[in-house]
Protein 1
Amino acid sequence: MPVIPAITTKLSIEDAIKHMARQDPDVIVIGEIKDTFLAGAAVQAALTGHKVLTTFHAEDSISGLLRLFTMDSDGFLTASTVSCVVAQRLLRRVCVHCARPYELTPMDLRRIGCEFDQMAGAAFSKGQGCSHCRYTGYRKRVAAFEVLVLNDPVRDGLIEGKTSHQIRRICKETTGLVTLFEDGFYKAALGITTVEEILRCLPIFHKPRSFGELARLLGK
Ligand SMILES: [Zn+2]
């Protein structure tokens, strides 16, 4: 499959997309959707049978989907063409050289919104600080992901103008969505990152499900 370079000097992104679509590529990559024109062009390219990969800034996968939906003048086309939205946030990893087991305090449990019995099997850890991690307790990064796969109930919810709160509930009930916070919480419960780090970096919309339930949903 030939790779068609998209950008040359003197060529606007609008012109580049029009020219690319005429070359009939299998996959079109749009670096970032910044305005309604690009949103419309991406949807039109997807409607004509191209696989379109793109990025845009949003708080989480559902906010991203709603943002794209409101940028497209024919919102139902977005609902029909988007197949998946992946959100990610980077978290600092616990330094493996100075990691020690960490017992959650009652305050931690309150801040996470969990009961102690929901943590069965979890093994939290925290770095003590050493020369490898410049005495921070963290070294390298790990991503927390949220993968939203659109199914009919989610598409219907979008077209009916449901709120992000309602769509998030539909996603959790029908698509097995694991939220960013739940994925971060699962990684903290494996000792990969810390409770402090997920509370600092990830949005909490609902209480996370138990460690065992998340392990089942994530196929572990
Ligand atoms: Zn260390």
Protein 2
Amino acid sequence: MKIYNSLTDKKEDFKTNNGKKVNMYVCGPTVYNYIHIGNARPVVFFDIVKRYLTYKGYEVTYASNITDVDDKIINRAIEENKTEKEIVDKFASQYFNDCANLGSNKPDITPYATDYIEQMIKYIKNLEDTGYAYFKDGNVYFRISKIGDYGILSNQRKEDLIAGARIDVADQKESPLDFTLWKNTDVGIKWDSPWGKGRPGWHTECVVMINDIFKEEIDIHGGGTDLKFPHHENEIAQANASDKTHLAKQWMHVGRLQIDNQKMSKSEGRTIWVKDLLENYPYQAFRLFILSSHYRQPINYTDEIMNQYNKEWDKISKAYKQAYVSLAMAGNTNKELSEEIKEFESYMDDDFNTPNVLMLISNIIKKINTKIRSKEDFSAEFNTLDVILNTLGTIPVKPVVDAEAKDIYNKWNEARVNKDFEAADKYRNILVEKGII
Ligand SMILES: [Zn+2]
């Protein structure tokens, strides 16, 4: 299996630290608002990564955090005259609802940053003791000059970054690239520390949670491509300082989602919240849309494209249902898979080539329909379709085919054969009502 590694800019054979065990971490949201469909792309994609690795026999532990301390949360709390905890509780629970409604399984571990403050203080203290951090005017900064390969992930040279950095006149830092590990603050929630009252910086949160949960370099670290710099670059710099690792063997980044070929923008009204989208479309249609572009490429959302995938999903789920009911009625219990399963694996093994998988799904459905017409056994193709759709988390509804349903189904067929259209219509309506056809 090959996966593109953002750290080396190469498609590489997927290698783990411990055989079939995979430790995976994906940066989660700062919970100060609802999530939009751009945030949903990694939520859907990394859910599929876990599903597929599990399908391949890996035992995946998936962690994704909640950032519950940040200026944005503090500002929203002030605006709404609420406590920060009220804001966090509201939007974290909405986030988990949205993820579930997108068809994504909840990660195995969902750490909240503020549950790790003690470990963060210890971690920063250690960086300070070893010369990788320095204290100035209440804040603690990371010393970038100590990291030789800074810029490795985002392919930027340290000198160029320094030359291009904005220098604040009031800046007390040794280098404009140095980032805040501990922030002295007057507003919002704060904790006691060796450097006075304050709170940790965002880049430190993820590193400390990863270390605390997994205890070693992890196998996969993921996130949106907008997190590459500075967030992930700074995570790597800290791991380099504290553990002499790049934090993860494999770095994966999901491309951005645009609306009408433009960047999503709240001020210009170009934001679609997940909760609103899912009022108009089934989650499976949105997942098909996400899968229609390779995960590293940007993806463009328009109502027209979304409607197209809605129709596509309708086609897939109807074909699936028809095949399922017909096999259930015939009492066909064959569990074999068809040859297409190898094709599915070859696409997924090639850095998650999901656009090709969507074409394969169309081909399988065509094949099933041909076989239905020629009265051939299509159970193996159906089983393969079932495995693929489940692995993509795009799961069709299976109607309940009980004895009563079978009886009506047989009567319906009989009436059709006898050209008793009135009776056929009556039975057909019952079957439609029961969701069987
Ligand atoms: Zn992070």
